[in-house]
Design a protein that fits this description.
With about 425 residues, the protein is an alpha+beta fold. It is built from eight helices and twelve strands. The chain has a five-stranded antiparallel sheet, with helices on both faces. About 25% of the residues are buried.
Length: about 425
């Protein structure tokens, strides 16, 4: 149990940290990407307003440098206010007429793109009717001029996108390494974290087992004394009869609690032998069919022949008995309980279903296997059960490396499905 809790604790912590890292890395890189796009759009807007070029006072001239400008604080990252912007930006523009023909191409401010390539980019964009987007690492913006022509301006975002990709890769690598280190640390410390829970659970199970054995002795004495009193009484005594009934009920409950505790402690090891599951299921069905008919209920069986598995025959018999007993108890009079046994690949599946008195709360299905749990709509102490049978059924199934679950079929039919490994 301790190892299982450590694994669950570690997995939960890792998943939590992973989600936080994913959100943080995604948010930071998304902001970084949006910054690259935003700065590019500002430059494109400036170029578009001036016919595909920077304003005259910002244009660089060969052999001539602009007059020194007062220093500006660009530490906020907005390079559109920098006097170096015109010198740093690589851009080109294309004008397309209303008929779709390329009227002019300006690639004088970029070396990596030829006139033909620029014209091809512009033609594709013109045909797509998009006003903004990317062609490779080139951000573009399209506007309609006063003459009715289409001006498409391109800005090279390569340096910014390269920095974005580098930062994205580094952030993912650092996050992955951090997650591995955190996982190792959490797993090493998880033993100390779960120790109090494990210790408390072990004490609880030992208490149930020890108390159960201690209770069995006085119950046996009470039952024996009741037998003596009943033998000495000439007439039927309902009080003594009731004492014996309740003593028997307490003894059964104690046995089930002890069995369940042993299973949870791991001290119960099922016998591994080949058993005829078909024969066990048919016998249990016939046994409960007689009891069900006596209370106005029916049992229908759909049992495949020659279904065999490896396991503890007595435990499997108890499992089927619990499922049938539970179904008959909570099935309304005049209705029918169904039991089905079938193969599923190399495994075996047992399904027991029964209608209920009212609608089934789907949210409560997972709690039916908890000790002493009773759903208000269909399960009450008046049925005579202890509220622990399904817990035992689950423990038996899991001891055979199987799974058991409850399902809702329609509004008022509940189905229990136990898969047993071969």
């Amino acid at each position: 149990m301790k190892n299982s809790l450590r694994i669950r604790f570690t997995v939960t912590a890792i998943v939590s940290v992973l989600l936080v890292l994913v959100v943080m890395v995604s948010a930071i890189n998304l902001m970084n990407y949006n910054k690259v796009v935003s700065d590019s759009d500002k430059v494109l807007g400036m170029l578009a307003e001036n016919g595909g070029a920077f304003p005259e006072h910002m244009k660089p001239e060969p052999g001539k440098y602009p007059e020194p400008a007062p220093p500006k604080d660009t530490r906020g990252g907005d390079r559109t206010e920098s006097p170096e912007l015109a010198f740093e930006t690589r851009y080109f523009s294309v004008v397309i007429g209303g008929n779709g023909n390329v009227l002019s191409v300006d690639t004088g401010n970029i070396a990596a793109v030829s006139d033909d390539t620029a014209a091809g980019y512009a033609s594709d964009i013109y045909g797509s009717n998009k006003t903004k987007g990317f062609v490779g690492d080139y951000r573009y913006s399209s506007i309609v001029t006063s003459e009715g022509d289409t001006l498409i301006v391109f800005c090279d975002c390569g340096p910014g996108l390269s920095n974005f990709r580098s930062f994205l890769g580094i952030s993912i690598l650092i996050s992955a390494c951090s997650l591995v280190l955190i996982s190792i640390v959490v797993f090493l410390l998880s033993g100390r974290a779960v120790s109090p829970v494990v210790e408390s659970h072990e004490k609880q199970k030992r208490f149930i087992t020890d108390a159960g054995h201690e209770i069995k002795t006085p119950l046996a004495i009470i039952n024996a004394d009741a037998d003596v009193l009943l033998a000495e009484t000439t007439e039927d005594n309902e009080w003594i009869t009731d004492i014996k009934k309740q003593t028997r009920r307490l003894a059964d409950l104690t046995d089930e609690l002890i069995l369940l505790s042993k299973m949870e402690e791991g001290s119960y090891v099922p016998v591994r032998e080949e058993i005829d599951l078909t024969d066990i299921t048919e016998k249990q069905t016939e046994l409960f069919r007689v009891a069900a008919e006596g209370t106005g209920r029916k049992i229908e069986g759909n049992i495949e022949p020659d279904v065999r598995i490896t396991g503890d025959g007595k435990a499997i018999e108890r499992l089927i008995s619990i499922l049938l007993d539970n179904a008959v108890k909570y099935c309304p009079e005049g209705r029918t309980v169904s039991i089905c046994l079938k193969r599923s690949w190399k495994n075996a599946v047992i399904e027991v279903s029964n209608p209920t008195e009212g609608p089934i709360d789907e949210k409560s299905l997972g709690s039916l296997f908890d000790r002493f749990y009773r759903a208000d709509s269909s399960r009450n102490s008046g049925t005579g059960g202890h509220g622990i049978g399904l817990s035992v059924a689950k423990a038996i199934t899991e001891a055979h490396s199987g799974k058991i679950a409850a399902y809702k079929d329609g509004d008022d039919v509940i189905r229990f499905r136990a898969l047993l490994r071969s």
